[in-house]
Amino acid sequence: MSPSTVVAATREASPTLDRARRAQARRVVRALRETYPDADCELRFSTPLELLVATILSAQCTDVRVNQVTTKLFQKYRSAADYASSSQEELEDDIRTTGFFRQKAWSIRRTAQILEADHRGEVPPAMEQLLKLPGVARKTANVVLGTAFGIASGVVVDTHIKRLTFRMDLTDETDPIKVENDLVKLIPRKDWVWFGHATIWHGRRVCFARKPACGTCSLNSFCPRRGV
């Protein structure tokens, strides 16, 4: 079974969900909606290609740093063809401060070459095709599809979402695909894209990995791991 079909298959195979966890998910969504009604992607972009590149760069790097780098990067590279024709060394220098710059530069260049060869230089709005691109797993594909195209293909699962959904008892899993499988069964599809952004916002602002600010948390009253 491919990563792009796991979510749908698991939903069909599990029609009965735990009532307590469903109720908890409703509380979480309600509180996040009240706290972060306008939550959105904090990576700056103007095209699907820019978001794809920015998301690849965001691995093991903060959005703040990525936005600093892409301010100049997106002025220099305006199309997939620009990335595809760049040298490895030049692109490495352009993105060096994002970390893991050699692998990221290779992934971006190779992705751009595939986009030029197979998609007329455009980012395809389809999970299966995105997952064939170097450096693109479900997290990146979900970010691009949900934020650039408005397609709710699943729920983004990054370190913040893994941490918060475990703390809120929405999942017991640690593998990102399994976490996503649990979340799509609990969160209404219309909220999938927003929920990812809102949960990331909460993780960055309140529910820190170390010393979470439980005293100011809007989810505190029903968090099973508050104060831990």
Please give a structural write-up.
The chain starts with a helix and ends in a 23-residue tail after the last helix. The chain has 228 residues and is mainly alpha-helical. It is built from 12 helices and no strands. The chain has 2 domains: 3-40 and 153-222, Endonuclease Iii, domain 2; 48-148, Endonuclease III, domain 1, CATH 1.10.340.30.
Give the arrangement of secondary structure elements.
Blueprint: H1 3-13, H2 19-35, H3 48-57, H4 63-76, H5 80-85, H6 88-95, H7 101-118, H8 127-130, H9 138-148, H10 159-167, H11 176-186, H12 192-205
Looking at this protein, list some descriptive labels.
228 residues; Endonuclease III, domain 1; mainly alpha; 12 helices; single chain; Endonuclease Iii, domain 2
Brief sketch in words of this structure:
With 228 residues, this protein is mainly α. It is built from twelve helices and no strands.
- The number of helical elements comes to 12
CATH topology grouping of the largest domain: Endonuclease Iii, domain 2
- Please outline the major beta sheet: none
Global Rg: 18 Å
CATH top level of the largest domain?
Answer: Mainly Alpha
**N-to-C CA distance:** 37 Å
Q: Give the full name of the CATH homologous superfamily of the largest domain.
A: Helix-hairpin-Helix base-excision DNA repair enzymes (C-terminal)
| Form type | elongated
In percent, how helical is the residue content?
55-70%
In terms of per-residue confidence, which ranges show pLDDT below 50 for 5 or more consecutive residues?
A: 8-13
Q: How many E strands? A: 0
Structural class: mainly alpha
